[in-house]
Every structure is written in C-alpha cells, then in structure tokens.
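Session log. Operator J.P. requested a structure for one protein chain; no other inputs attached. Running the standard single-chain path with token output.
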Amino acid sequence: MSGKKRDIFHFNGENPTAINLEHVTHMAIVGARITFTFSANAIYVDMADDETAKKVFEQLLNVWGSDVV
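Structure written below.
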C-alpha cells in the first residue's frame, strides 16, 4: 500500500481533539490558542500557555508544509 501519509495530531486536554492536517485550509495562533480552519468550519485548541502554543504551532507548520510521502 502506498500513498501520502496523513498527518493527524492528537491534543489532550479538557476536550481531547484530533486534527487531520490534510483537511486544514488555514491555521492561526493568538496567545495560547491555535485555530484550525477547514472548508466549512473552524475549531481551536487551547495550549497551556503562549510559549507552548508557539512551539506546537511551529511544529504543525513544518509538518503541514512538508512533502512527506
């Protein structure tokens, strides 16, 4: 079986959430909140603090923009 690997991220917290970056059309960070926009809606994930959010956001951007197969 071959094809592009799906990049799914799991976030623990009050409401555990999983995000499939393949379907994300826009991603933004404000303080400790990372917002993911899809073609029809958006969800957000609150990180513990601003610094953690910045680190996670950078990791997500690296994966989202990569051509890993």
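Operator note: The first strand starts at residue 8 and ends at 11.
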